[in-house]
Structures are given as structure tokens and as C-alpha cells.
Structure to design on (184 residues):
């Protein structure tokens, strides 16, 4: 099958804009030839995720209430990285802010689009090793709970549906494969 854009954009209008996202409404002709609209959310930051892993194969999860889903969520440390900033620098900052951890070894394990039917948001996920503990300094909008647990327990939480955040699910499943195949 040919990889081409079957959509025709007639015109576009910015509907909403803030420091984190913009929303554009496009008047389009869809692939079957019909006229319609397409809403596109543009994220102004990269999504950054970090799975910290110590020598005993423990990891750390962050618990917090997520306003859009109206529920509490257990996740790997995550945050936003400015588009013009080195993603690894963003990852180091986010890990320190949310957990107080710093790491000497960093491995990028995944790049993924989080909701590519409506958004251009790109996520980059790292494993952080060689950990040392410092002092966390969450942002004022964050009320976080930090939980240290064996990686296998986090893996079971994914399998049981207790962890539903997409970056966390991807990071934990990919790390499980890496641990099995490459003995990190």
C-alpha cells in the first residue's frame, strides 16, 4: 500500500492555545472524499518518562490524582521536556524533581506517539541506572506519593490493570523484555 496523505486540508483555525497545548480545527476532505472537520491537539513539550532501576531490580512509581481521568494513577516518573531542550536533560530533571533520584547510566528504550489520532505528542522513555537518592522537589501543581517496589511487582501491576498510564505500561513491558533478553 502506498504511504501517502489521503487528507486534503481546506483551511485551519487555531481554536485554543495555552502554555502547554494548542488546538487547531481543520476543515478537510477526508480519504473517501467527504467534507468534515478534524481537531488536532499540538503539544508544546515532549512527554518524558523514566523507569529508575537499582541493582536489586527495584523501581520507583509516582502516585497522583490525574484530573482528566478523575482517578488516582500509579506511574513511572514523567514530565514535559521543552521541544528545544535535550530530552535526556529533561529526563534527568524530571527524575530528580519527582523522586529525588539521580542516575549515572541512561538508556533510551522507546519513542512513541501517545494518541496519534488527535495529537502530535511524542514520548521518549528512558531506563535510569546507577541511582543515588537526593531530595525531591515536585512542582506546585503536583501532589505526589513516591513508592519503591520490586520491578516484578510493577510488572504485575501492569498485567493486573492497576497501572494504565500508556508510557508506564510501555516502559514496564519493554523493560521486562530487556531484562529477559539482555540481563541488564
Amino acid at each position: 500500500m502506498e504511504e501517502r496523505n489521503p487528507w486534503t486540508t481546506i483551511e485551519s483555525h487555531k481554536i485554543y492555545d495555552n502554555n502547554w497545548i494548542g488546538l487547531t480545527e481543520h476543515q478537510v476532505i477526508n480519504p473517501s472524499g467527504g467534507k468534515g472537520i478534524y481537531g488536532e491537539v499540538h503539544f508544546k513539550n515532549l512527554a518524558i518518562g523514566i523507569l529508575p532501576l537499582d541493582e536489586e531490580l527495584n523501581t520507583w512509581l509516582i502516585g497522583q490524582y490525574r484530573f482528566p481521568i478523575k482517578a488516582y494513577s500509579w506511574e513511572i516518573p514523567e514530565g514535559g521536556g521543552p521541544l528545544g531542550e535535550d530530552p535526556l536533560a529533561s529526563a534527568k530533571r524530571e527524575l530528580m524533581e519527582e523522586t529525588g533520584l539521580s542516575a549515572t547510566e541512561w538508556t533510551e528504550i522507546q519513542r512513541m506517539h501517545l494518541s496519534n489520532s488527535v495529537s502530535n505528542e511524542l514520548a521518549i522513555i528512558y531506563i535510569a541506572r546507577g541511582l543515588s537518592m537526593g531530595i525531591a522537589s515536585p512542582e506546585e501543581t503536583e501532589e505526589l506519593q513516591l513508592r519503591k517496589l520490586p520491578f516484578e511487582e510493577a510488572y504485575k501491576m501492569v498485567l493486573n490493570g492497576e497501572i494504565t498510564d500508556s508510557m508506564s505500561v510501555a516502559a514496564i513491558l519493554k523493560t521486562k523484555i530487556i531484562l529477559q533478553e539482555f540481563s541488564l
Q: What stands out?
A: Residues 93 and 102 are 9 Å apart (CA to CA). The first strand starts at residue 8 and ends at 17. The two ends are 39 Å apart (CA to CA). The first helix runs from residue 87 to 99.
